[in-house]
Fold:
Amino acid sequence: MIIRLSGSAPPTDQIRDQIRGLIAARQLAADDRLPSVRQLARDLGVAPGTVAKAYRALEIEGVLTTRTGAGTRVSPTAATTPRPVLDAARKLAETSTRSDVDLDLTIEVLRAVWPPRPEDPVTATRDRPIDPTAQ
Structure:
């Protein structure tokens, strides 16, 4: 497991988001053991409370489970990304990198082309293309 702290988000949020991402990307699987709070804090150069807070948030979400003596593990019910979606995401990342398009712009483009959910009338209305001929 590799976690890197960078950017403007608080370290707790970065740790939480990266662990969630590692699980979604199938780099961490159900029942995989995570480093102890102290070990990960030492590795990242942050206070143990920062890692503990991230682990607790993920426990509340049902992503991690912690048991005394067994450590912190990925929950058996943690959601992973379906293989075709993961493959397409990797291809998009490679294409964006080759085209010198950064992550933020790639995400903006993805959001722009994402179809609205029919059951969400607010999103469906908000995301509907503007019709310049409409009066």
Remarks:
- The radius of gyration is 19 Å.
- The beta strands are 64-67, 71-74.
- The longest strand covers residues 64-67.
- Residues 6 and 107 are 18 Å apart (CA to CA).
